[in-house]
Structure formats: C-alpha cells, structure tokens
C-alpha cells in the first residue's frame, strides 16, 4: 500500500529539493530560465547598489554586536549571513507594499528606510519600536514568534477589500510580506496565516528565511520535509531560493511579488540561508553547532559571492569597494555616536500611548508615581 | 425605537455603525448566512455583502491576528467570538499584539478593533459555553472592556466601542439576549465607561454588571420588602472601572457587596474590594463582600444554578454585610 | 512564470481529487487495487455486523435528537450521515489503540464500548465527560475545536517512547487516532499537531471527517485545496476516502492504521462525507444550505448503500434487517429510560475532583456553600 | 550540598526527579544541547538522552498539548517555557484542557504536568521577556501555582511539583537565577503551598513572593534601622494562597502591604487584600496597600526600574500603611 499512499511524500523527502540559484558561490552566473528576465533587468549599477546595501547592513549589524558588548544595547539579533535574502527581497518590493518583519529584519528595514539608529534604540531598551509603520510601510519588529504572519495576511485581505490587487496598475497593486524564520513555521499562527491567505486568496507573500537554526534547534527539529512545501496543503504554492544569492533572491522575489500582485493568490518563498552568527548576543552557538558547518556556509557568503561576480564579470573599479567600505565606516561611526548619545526617555513615557483615549487608572498611576518621584527631589532639595 | 431584545439592539447598533462608516466590517465564525449562533448579525451580510460581513475560517487566533492586519490597513474590524471560552485560542494575539501595538508604536498605530464576546452561564449549555473570562483580559494593560446589561446600553455601547480608536472587548450577557428593553435612539446617556446607579439606596451598595444586573434589580426589590435599602450599581465599564461612582455610593452606605458570575478568586470583585477599601477605609462598616463563581471549573448545566450567584446568594451576601 | 511556480497547485485544485471508493451508492463493489485485500478479509457476517453497528448508532442519534426536543438533554450533536466513516474507522482499530474524539464521535464511542447513555449524560449536563478514558482507550469528548489533535499526537509520541510501534507484534504496536472535522483543520492546534507528528515521526492517524460543514460554513471557507493534502507540507501524507462507503472506510483505515503501526510515521485520512442533519439541535441548517444538496447526499446514504449490497450480493435473510430494527428499538427504549431516570448529581460534585490533592480554597468554598444550602433546609424545617 | 545558584538548584532538582522516576521527561525549546536559554537543563540531555530531554518544535500550544497526550500515556512531562510572555500561545491548552481534564474525567485522568516559567523583569530584556503573568492563571480553577525565592526552595519545590498528580505551574524568578543559597538535601521544610515567615516583626506585614523576596529582606532590614519592625512573608504558593499564615501575621501587626512585579490592578495583591480584609476586618489599622507594576505594558528596559517595585517604593508603601 505504501506506494500509492506515501509516494509523493517519499520522493519529496528523498530527493534534494529544487533550489533556485543564479549566482554560484564562485561568483558566476547560471541560467535559470523563467527568472532570467528579472535578472537581466538588473544593471551593473543595480548590482553595485545591492553590494553596497549588503555591506552597509552588515556593518550596522557588526556595530549592533559591538554596542551590545560595550553595554550600550541590552541585546542584538545579528542578521549576519542573511544580507542577500533581505536586500534581495527588500529591493524587489514597491513603495506601496507593506512588510511585516520579525526582530532580525535589519536588511529589510534598511530597504524600507528605517534608520539603523532606530533599530538600535529598540534593542537598547529605549522603547519597543520607535518608528511609524505607515511611514515606512514596514511594521514594528515582532518578537512573539509567528504573530506577524497573521498581521500580514490581514493586511493583504485589506488590500483585497480595497481592490488594490490585480488591476494591472503597477503603482496601485500592492502586496504584503510576512517575514518569519524556519522555527516560526511550527507556530499555529503561521499555519493560520496560510489558512486565511489561502481561503481569502490574499495578496501576501510569505517570506521564510530558513537560516537553518531556531536558536539551538536545527530545522530538522521543526520539519521532516522542506519548508517551501509547507503551504501546499493550504493552497499556497512555494519555492526555495538560494538565500545567499542576491541575484536569485531579487529575481525570484520580483517574480513572486509580481505574481501575487497580479491577483494569483498567496505564495511562500523559502530563502535557504544560514545564520552565520549567534542567535542573539545572549547566545553561544558553540554549545550546539559544529564549527565545520559554519565553515561550509562561510564559503557561500552572500557578499563575497557578489563581489566575486562584480570583480570577474563587470568593470567595477577597485575603488568602488574601498568607497563602500569607507561609507560603512562612516555609517558605523554615525550610529555608534547616535546610540551612545541617546537619552533615557522621560519616565512619563511609561504611561503614554497605552491608549489613544485616556484611561483614568493610568492617569492616576502616572500622577501618583510622579508625585512619589517628586517627593525624593523635594527631600533631596531639603538636604 | 420599539422595545428590542438585547441581542437585536446590538444588531441595530452594528447596522448603524456600518452605515456610518464604510471601514467597519464584521468578521467571525458563522456570522454570514447564519447570522451568528445567536443571530446577532442576522441580515447584515445580506445588506452589507460578503466583504463587510466575513465568515472566517475556524481559527480564533487567525481572526484576531488578521483583524489586526486589517486595522493596519485602515479597517475597523468587529470580531464575533462564538462563545466565551473560545476566545482562549486568540489569547496571545489579544494580549501580546492587539493590546500593545498602540504602545509599541508610540501611538502611531491605532487599533480600533472590537471583540464581541457572548459570556456567562445560565443557558443550559455544555462545557466552555458559560464562562466569564473578563478578569484575565482586564489584568492586561491595553484593552478596554465594557459590558451592557440592557438593550439601550447594548445599542449605544457597541457603537461607542466601534467608534473608539482603542481596542475594546465587548462582553455580551448571553442569557439576557432575549431581554427586551426600550432603546432611546436620540440619547446615548452615560459614556460607556461610567457606572450607572440603577437604583438609589442607603443601607448597602450592590455592584454588579452584565447578566447579573437584572438579578440585582430583583435583589434590591426583595431587600426593600424586608426593609433594606440597596443601592444598585451597574458597572458597565470593566476596564477602566468607574471607582468614583462606587466610592461615592459606599461613602454613603458604608457597605459594599460585589456580585459576578466569574469566580470570586481574583475576579473583578477582588480589585473593587481592594481599591474601595483603600478609598473608603474609614467609611466601611463591613468588609467588602463578594458573591460569585466558585474556584472550580464551571459545572455541568444540571448544577449550574448552584454555581451562578442568584437572588438568594446575593441577598445572603447583603445580609452578611449588614450583620457587621 | 506561473507554470513552474503554481503548476502542481493548480492542477491539484482543478482536477477532481482522487477519492477511494469500493462500494457504489447503488450497493455494488468496485475494485480498488491495494485495498481490496482488506476488504476481502471481511466476511458477510462482518458486513452484517457493520450494518448493525450503523443502524444502532443512527438510532442512538435519533434518540439524542428526540430527547433534546423533549427537554431531557441540553444539546445533542447528531452524527447522522457519518456512520460509515466512524464505524469503518472504529472497527479497523485494535484494542491497544487510543482514540481522541470530538463531540460528534458517537459511532467511534460505540466501537470503543462507551455506552450511549454515558454520552447522553454529558449532553444532558450531568457532567463534562463521565467515562474513564483509559478503560475504553477513548478520550473524553473535546469541544474546543482542534485541541485533541495535539493530545493524540502527544499520546503517539508516548507510544514511540515506549517502543510500542514497529515491533511487528500486532498486539503490541499501537497508534493513536486524532479525530477532527473539516472546520477544525483551520485551527493552529491541528497544524501544530501535524508539526509534532511529522517532527517526531509519531504513530498518529489523523482522521478528518470532512462532512462539508463547520456549522454554517462550507469547507470552501476553510481551504481552497482538498483537505487530504493538508499534511503534505508537514511530512504527513494523506488520502481521501469515500466516507459514506463503509467497505472503503474500513479497508483504508485498516491499511493506514497498519502502516502507521508499522512505524511508517503519521498519516492523514480524510473521510469525505456529509453532515445530513443539523450541526447540533441548536442549529437551523435551512438558514444556510440548499435542500437540493441534502437530497444529493441522501442518495449516498451509508446505511442504505450497505443494505443494498447485502441484499444484492449476499444471502442475508430479510429478517436480519427486521431483527436489527428491533434491536434498535430496544436500544432506543433502553437509553431513553436511562436518560429520563438520570438523577441530578449531588451538588458536592462541583467541588470534587478539580484536583487529585486537596485545595484549601475549594474546601472552604465547598463548606461554606453546603452550610449556606443547609441554612435553607433549616429555615424550611423551622416553618 | 554547597551553596548553589537558584537556577542550578532547579537543575539539581530536575535531575533528582528524573533519577527517581523514569516517567519524568523534559520538553521545551532549546533545552537539549543548549541546556535552555538560562542553562537550567544544562547537561541533562547528555545524561538522560534525547528521549527524556526533548527539544520541541517552536510551538508552545503544541508543547503543552502534546504533553497532555504524553500524560494520558503515563508520562510526567516537565515543560520549559522560554520566557514569561511566550506562554500565551499555550493559554488555551493550559486553561481549557490541562486545568480541566481531571475534573472532566471525574478524576479518572491525572495531569501530572509541570510548566516551568521563568518570569519577572530586571534583566534588561526586550519586550515580552520581563512579564509576570501568574495572576491570569491563578484565576482559572484547576492549576496550582508555586514560585520559589531561594535555592533551597527551588530544589525542593520543583521536585514536589513533579511528584504532584496535579498540574503545577512553577514560576521561576529569573532575575534571581544567579542568587546563591544553601540547599539542605535532607529536609524540604515547608510543603510547597505554605507561606514562610521569613522574618518576624510586629508593626507591619509585608507579603511578597519570587523575585521580590530578597528585596523584601532588604526592606525589612532598612525599616528596622528606622525603627519599624516588618514581618516578611514569602508566599511560595500562589494558588492556593496560604491565607492562614497571612491572617495570623496581620492579626498581630494590624497592617499589610503586598508587593509583586505583576500589575497591581487585579494582581494577586487584590485577592489578598480582599480576603485578608474579610478575615481581619477588626484587626486592620490601615487598608491593605499594594505595591506593584503599573497598568501599562512593561516598558523598555531603560525605564523598567520605574516599573518594578524596589526597596524605596515598598518602603513608601509601608510608610503609607503606618501613616494610618
Ligand atoms: C512564542 C515565542 N516563543 C519563543 C520565543 C523565543 N525565541 C526567540 S527567537 C526564537 C527562535 C526563532 O527561530 P526562527 O523562527 O528560525 O528565526 P531566527 O531567529 O532563526 O531568525 C525563539 C525560540 C519567542 N520569541 N516567541
Ligand atoms: C475553539 C472553538 N471555536 C469555536 C467553537 C464552536 N464550534 C463548535 S463546533 C464548530 C464547527 C466545527 O466544524 P468541524 O470541525 O467541521 O466539525 P463538525 O462539527 O462538522 O463535526 C464550531 C465553530 C468551538 N467549539 N471551539
Ligand atoms: Mg531560523
Ligand atoms: Mg464539519
């Protein structure tokens, strides 16, 4: 009986799942049929722009780590290794799209115009967010795993209700992007998001960055089958892309976004990548993973790969790379300066904007607490 | 408007809110053709279409989570949860997302979402259909909670909830759905967070809300016959609680009994008791007494009349307060 | 690009999904390849047994409806139309298996030896359960949609930990069965159950009775693709069976159960059936579904179908059917009698078995409330 | 045993329980090789294997729900929830299933499951990592809740929780994980639901639990210097609460302050205030005062010292109580 019953499944599990790659780790282009059109649209300048983006966000990331070590941040969640996945996706989106990130989306934040300093502020404990999601069309970082997948889906349902999908007007048709990790796929909320997306044919692009780890757990703890297949039983087709290959990431993200935008329904993109650093600055990966694996993935570094391409196959001048590094240094200095000079917010902020309209208990507690603080000031004054 | 059953007053309020604001939409299980298991949304899908009265997949977390996303897009979703205990699968989205997004975004994002929850017992239902979970939501900052006890309030408070830019949980006393009452369409009366002194009295204050307000009226009437003057307060707002109105009453009566169907242990009565004792320490002739559900699972319906505070148990509470 | 991207999905959605059927609505056997072996094991007596089971549980069900109308029950959830799905599954299981039901599993309860009266007691409001799950290896009815799928999965993980799977010993190797409806598939808990089952290779058989309705919502509200595919992206292969065909139900359930029992991992069985009655006695299906559809499914009635087969293709004597009807009448009388003579449980039960070990607050409340009740007895006595 | 950090006392307790009973297993996120984000399960997978120390998929409802199923199969799962607020996705399984199955089956089914929850603030974490959600679980019948404040209790109470046939939520004061204390392996001392009088006093009773017990000790010491004699009670059991011990103390001191990190509004302090006021109405010289979190989301870590009750705020509460 097994043949009929588990046939598809077994073949799916046994064979290597198809992964779309357009740029080899050695920096050479490979053909990819239907996606080549989108890659062809990319000028060498565009690619240099991608390179610059990746280097800069990697530097932001390094600075985040350093500032945490110096006690300037409470925590930092590094994106190291996921630059291509995020910049590729970020640059494939249009202004009217709306991204719902996790806590590690510094590359996407970059593309959506959220200043790195703002991200640092949140990790410093100044606040829990600090940017206007509507201004950037980039929602707040979401820490509770998987929650944002539903928000993205609801937003996409709203796009549908507004009729802003499938009109053919590229400045009007919009999508939402639901970002989540490999670990997050196990959360009920992510599955419910697939359910609603499928049921309402919502223009949402599920963007799973499979960085192989959920803190210490390898993806095999979450699933025995490739994650790009997760949506199939919900009516959400999936693709796996080499997440360390920015050309493939961009091209497939563009193709997928356009497909969703056209009204074809939701899709799931699995970016197959690697968390090269620790989960967060509080984590110690040596406890649970092999240095050999880290080395293996180091050879697939997304930035090195694009640099090789630029060096081998374009006439990018050598000082371009030096300039980018200088820009990175400047950026690093700027955000370090911004970080250390952040002032602790006034205590009143605790009581602010819990609600839009006033709440008497909060007002009462605010008044009492401020009076209490004042009593110290007074008694100190009295001394 | 003629006298309406409480449930139909909500229907009328929803209809009015949808007429007034095209961004208002309803989402929930079975709220379309069926009109909801309590028929509160009856006729609305027919009139407003499937895009504004949305039958959702059977997933409460999904309903709340996608409603949050729709709110980010500018919509004002009004969620129907089918029965009280079925709100728990959505607990996480409610307390870690809905309740906190305004704060997380420093007010840049509003969450004008209403969650309608039919609650309470007394209708002979199986498990999970008779609970009163308001307390656990009230403890979390970021949610406002109101509960009407009559048709007029139901009609207005649902509209006020929908108009609010803040997330509001709207607890509907399901065993009073069929209770008819006049609705004055011209005047909402009190704002939804103010308690109402339903009946003035001088010997003891009885605070309750939702399904027990009619019981409280019977209690006050019965007590009056025995010569006890009960001041009955309908809380209406469960978070914030209108402590000023209770305090004013207790300063007058010197005694307070709080009754609710929710378990006494850590029920709203505990907060009311604690705070009113603080505010009225020198005015209280007796400790604040509480009458409510037991610290047990809600029992099978054959036994629920024991679990639910009724006229006798509330009068017993009043007698105990008066005995001090 | 759509071809590559959504190809499989589209074909899956467009073509009629494969459904295993072995007995036509007209009562004729059709071949089914790999499953015929299990059907062949069934003697005519076995089939008559199935017929009897189905007629009796249908009568139990009718009695449930009637007793509710008479005010003897608070509610009843009819299984009308799902007899073959449940009896087929129930008879395919072995004593050591463990079933985790919803609230509509009266046919499975029957197979697991739970007396119909006991089910009535729960719907009467005597209690919330009333049987010992271990005695019947049949868990309590679960009302919160989807919860039990996780319990079944955890139980199966326990089977795995005990090594009671894949040993080849048919009296030892065990499975658990997770029952749920089409609507339930949308719940995060059901997806998480698929996740854990896949990740732990747990011997759980997911049994989805797709009766086309979740109260008023047709299955299309939950999913755009057939439900038997739901598990694929979790590593849980699926099959769709004609749920009104008891031969196919039994054969495929046997095959699937044996497969899971052998250590092949979890599976999902979708029984394609129809809720011929109301959702519960509190429901009014005329509000939301076409009488024509009801008629269409009436022609596929599982009991009529098997009766036709027995009449056409076996030498079942006419009085067999009459005897079954008499047995049904007797059963109905017995449970009616049992129901109306149920005594209201003592008030103390409210405070009983909240915990195994005592809880002072509950003891205090018990004492206070009993004293309070006594005060009435006394004052009444005083009059 | 030498002095152990509180976290390692839990590790030792877990190890002992696993040695004693082969049915005990641990399940949670990152508890295997990593040993949990707080290293509480460090070394246990190595010693007991992957079948008894199970790294689970990232799904809290799944972890609790499958643990229930394993309990039905005869196992005794001990769940680690990674941080306080990540328990909410499991809320439904906890309150509608875990808390109720014993009752639903009339005791035929036991639920010997322990849920370990590191809780509370003060460690400079981002959102969701510093909350104190004990109240919302305490309100539901069917769960017992305990919280140790020192290494000795941590060692014993985790074992007692595991040995219990009832579901126990074990709240671990995460900012005290590194607090060292002697563990007496020969004598557990009080049962886990009894409150402990940590320091006797006569002017005012201070009740607290978990992370604030060390703070309470500082408060008592500081107050003593100012001439105020504080009786400090460590609650230990959060449900049931040992009201007898509190009552006895308040009958003596006449004043009670309750402190916890959880929000004051509907926190455990509200129930303690209400019940002790009932029990000690004629003994109280002042209303029961509460010091705790605000009715706001837990703030960013730069502001958390304002949110968390500290020595000064608790002393202020005591002063206010004494001022009556
Ligand atoms: C509901 C919930 N449970 C647990 C956590 C703790 N936690 C934070 S990140 C993380 C791992 C997430 O892994 P993955 O989804 O793969 O994303 P990645 O961190 O690899 O980007 C966990 C368990 C959380 N934030 N939310
Ligand atoms: C969490 C939850 N939400 C809502 C309900 C109310 N409810 C009871 S049955 C039901 C429909 C279930 O449909 P399905 O899963 O298809 O099972 P069926 O009733 O058809 O057997 C609903 C919405 C519930 N019991 N639990
Ligand atoms: Mg990951
Ligand atoms: Mg169904």
From TrEMBL, chains B, D:
Q: Which cofactor does it need?
A: thiamine diphosphate
For this protein, the record's Pfam families field holds:
Transket_pyr, Transketolase_C
Looking at the keywords, is Oxidoreductase present?
A: yes
Q: Print the keywords alphabetically.
A: Oxidoreductase
Q: Which is one GO molecular function term here? A: branched-chain 2-oxo acid dehydrogenase activity
Q: Which SMART domains match?
A: Transket_pyr
Q: Where is the Transketolase-like pyrimidine-binding domain?
A: 4-179
Q: Which GO terms describe its biological process?
A: branched-chain amino acid catabolic process; response to nutrient
Q: Does the keyword Plastid apply?
A: no
Lineage, top-rank taxon, reads Bacteria
Give the InterPro entries listed for this entry.
THDP-binding, Transketo_C/PFOR_II, Transketolase-like_Pyr-bd, Transketolase_C
Entry EC no(s)? 1.2.4.4
Could you identify this protein by its name? Answer: 3-methyl-2-oxobutanoate dehydrogenase (2-methylpropanoyl-transferring)
Give the organism's phylogenetic lineage: Bacteria, Bacillati, Actinomycetota, Actinomycetes, Micrococcales
């Amino acid at each position: 009986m097994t043949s009929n019953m588990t046939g598809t499944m077994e073949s799916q599990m046994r064979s290597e799942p198809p992964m779309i790659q357009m740029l080899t780790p050695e920096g050479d282009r490979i053909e990819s049929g239907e996606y080549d059109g989108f890659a062809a649209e990319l000028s060498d300048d565009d690619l240099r722009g991608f390179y610059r983006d990746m280097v800069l966000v990697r530097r932001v990331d390094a600075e985040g780590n350093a500032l945490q070590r110096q006690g300037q941040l409470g925590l930092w969640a590094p994106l190291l290794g996921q630059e291509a996945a995020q910049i590729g996706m970020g640059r494939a989106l249009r202004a009217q799209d709306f991204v719902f990130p996790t806590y590690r989306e510094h590359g996407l934040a970059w593309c959506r115009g959220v200043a790195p300093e703002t991200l640092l502020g949140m990790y410093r404990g100044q606040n829990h967010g600090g940017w206007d999601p509507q201004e950037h069309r980039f929602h707040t970082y979401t820490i509770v795993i998987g929650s944002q997948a539903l928000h993205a889906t609801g937003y996409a349902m709203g796009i549908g209700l507004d009729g802003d999908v499938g009109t053919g007007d590229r400045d009007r048709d919009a999508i939402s992007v639901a970002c989540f990790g490999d670990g997050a796929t196990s959360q009920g909320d992510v599955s419910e998001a697939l359910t609603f997306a499928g049921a309402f044919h919502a223009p949402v692009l599920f963007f799973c960055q499979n960085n192989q780890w959920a803190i210490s757990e390898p993806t095999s703890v979450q699933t025995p089958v490739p994650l790009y297949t997760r949506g199939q039983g919900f009516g959400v087709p999936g693709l796996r892309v080499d997440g360390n290959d920015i050309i493939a990431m961009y091209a497939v993200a563009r193709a997928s976004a356009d497909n969703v935008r056209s009204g074809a329904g939701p899709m799931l993109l699995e970016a197959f990548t690697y968390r090269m650093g620790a989960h967060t600055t509080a984590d110690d990966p040596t406890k649970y993973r092999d240095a050999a694996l880290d080395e293996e993935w180091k050879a697939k570094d997304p930035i090195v790969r694009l640099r090789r391409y630029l060096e081998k196959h374009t006439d990018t001048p050598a000082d371009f790379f030096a300039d980018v590094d200088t820009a990175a240094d400047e950026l690093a200095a700027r955000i370090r300066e911004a970080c250390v000079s952040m002032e602790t917010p006034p205590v009143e902020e605790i009581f602010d904007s819990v609600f839009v309209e006033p709440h008497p208990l909060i007002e009462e507690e605010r008044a009492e607490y401020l009076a209490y603080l004042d009593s110290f000031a007074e008694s100190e004054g009295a001394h | 408007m003629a006298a309406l059953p409480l449930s139909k007053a909500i229907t009328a309020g929803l209809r009015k809110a949808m007429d007034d604001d095209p961004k208002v939409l309803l989402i929930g299980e079975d709220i379309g053709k069926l009109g909801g298991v309590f028929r509160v949304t009856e006729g609305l899908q027919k009139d407003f279409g499937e895009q504004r009265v949305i039958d959702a997949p059977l997933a409460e977390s999904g309903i709340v989570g996608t409603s949050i996303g729709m709110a980010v897009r500018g919509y004002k979703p009004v969620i129907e949860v089918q029965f009280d205990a079925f709100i728990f699968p959505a607990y996480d989205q409610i307390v870690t997302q809905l309740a906190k997004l305004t704060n997380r975004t420093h007010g840049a994002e509003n969450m004008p979402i209403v969650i309608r929850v039919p609650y309470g017992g007394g209708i002979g239902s199986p498990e999970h259909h008779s609970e009163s979970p308001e307390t656990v939501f009230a403890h979390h900052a970021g949610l406002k909670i109101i509960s009407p006890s009559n048709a007029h309030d139901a009609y207005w408070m649902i509209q006020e909830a929908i108009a609010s830019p803040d997330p509001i949980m709207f607890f509907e006393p399901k065993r009073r759905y069929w209770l008819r009452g006049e609705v004055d369409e011209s005047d909402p009366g009190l704002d939804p967070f103010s308690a109402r002194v339903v009946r003035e009295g001088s010997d003891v204050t009885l605070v309750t809300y939702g399904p027990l307000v009619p019981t409280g009226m019977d209690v006050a009437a019965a007590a009056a016959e025995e010569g006890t003057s009960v001041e009955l307060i309908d809380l209406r707002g469960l978070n914030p609680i209108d402590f000023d109105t209770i305090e004013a009453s207790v300063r007058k009566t010197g005694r307070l009994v709080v009754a609710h169907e929710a378990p006494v242990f850590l029920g709203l009565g505990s907060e009311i008791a604690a705070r009113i004792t603080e505010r009225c320490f020198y005015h209280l002739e007796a400790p604040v007494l509480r009458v409510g559900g037991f610290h047990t699972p809600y029992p099978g319906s054959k036994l629920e009349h024991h679990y639910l505070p009724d006229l006798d148990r509330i009068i017993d509470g009043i007698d105990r307060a008066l005995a001090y």
